[in-house]
Design a protein that fits this description.
- The chain is an alpha/beta fold.
- It is 37% helix and 21% strand.
- α5 links the parallel β7 and β8.
- α3 packs across α4.
- The longest helix is centred in the N-terminal third of the chain and has 22 residues.
- The radius of gyration is 24 Å and the shape is globular.
- The termini are far apart.
Length: 492
Amino acid sequence: MSASVNYDARAFIAGARVDARSGARFDCLSPVDGKKIAEVARCDAGDVDAAVQAARAAFEDGRWRKLAPAHRKRVLIKFADLIIAHADELALMETLDMGKPIQYAKGVDVNSTANCIRWYGEAVDKLYDEIAPTPRTALALITREPMGVVGVIVPWNYPMIMAAWKIAPALASGNSVVLKPSEKSPLTALRLAELALQAGVPAGVFNVIPGYGAEAGSPLALHMDVDCIAFTGSTKVGKLIHVMAGQSNLKRAWTELGGKSANIVFADCPDLDKAVAASIGSIFFNQGESCNAPSRLFVEASIKDRFLEKALALVPSYMPGDPLDKKTVMGALVDKTQHETVLRYIEAGQKEGAKLLAGGQAARVETGGYYVQPTVFDGVSNQMTIAREEIFGPVLSVLSFKEAHEAVSQANDSVYGLQAAVWTRDINKAHGVARALRAGTVHVNQYDEDDITVPFGGYKQSGVGRDKSLHAFDKYTEMKTTWLRIDSPLDV
């Protein structure tokens, strides 16, 4: 099916589709079957500069930032409505481009993207500034102002959602945006820009420049006229983003990076079947290509055998299928490189002594796509490669513990601190363990339940700053104090 699709994958700058200035393109291959679905504009520093200039011009003349918040709200809500109206198109594009099952591309990614944009649109005219408690001889106003030009670099695993988490609060605040999607999944970002324009976001306010990281991402992070750079991706690249922000104009840099989330199941778990289903479903959701995937499962020793028996019974239901089939629950990895990376990690786990209980092989090889079986390792040490490095694939490492402090110590023994979970019927234990875990989100007796109202981000090398919730506005606004001297206050 992907062979018959040919999307317009030119850049989107100043309200129009344009080729890269060099004329260069690169092939976009579908992980579903390895076939080409588009030729994508291969943007470089010249295109980045053109997009930034367009964004700067739009910001300076105020065509967007000077609009009343209620006006921006109406435009963003219309933008969200258009996303829903084009749900089938966007979902198909996402599945062909990235490999996730079509049921999730539509039911999760499209809906979450629209909801995020709508929520920030609704929020922007409900934010109030402050007046400081000064003496009667002064009036001090504390106001938020848009930063200016916001550069956004997003990964390939949730192309629309990750973009929405950043562009929605940035646009709602009155900024102009230059978005660089991953070269592995650029198509929906380009379509979103067209829908934003159709909704009423003025030309130049939202620009999209596809391309490779070194050729387009680095020039965006280094650009002297970009006021803020927001990045989601690997910790390795995130560190470079901070360096480039400092090397250039000391732009604000916000990074949401890797994870190796710990999922701790105690013997007094209130519902073992629920814990098993959530643990297995969450690690294999999106083919394991989630920064918050619970890839380290800590099970109390006294229930481990029973837990694994139930877990292994569920694994076959996650065998990869045709992503375009509405019944498929696990699709293809994003490309050949990621496919090979995941298989190398599986090989490393076996070489280091972990016991392979399920999976471990490539799947659906006859399709030409990039599929890996759902994989479970037992007997994992917290020092093994598969327990320390982010695999970004359907690979679960099972560890055991006897005491709560042992579980917490092992869980915290990681450079990452994105998410974690604890399963117990003891409220004191739940609260104590949650407080002790060094993670941005701790789930209790569930995994991955949340919504747009709560912040998302991590501790340690999982990044800085928070996406989602009203706290995201802190990333895309400057706080200004205006101090007014009142020389002759009325004595009344």
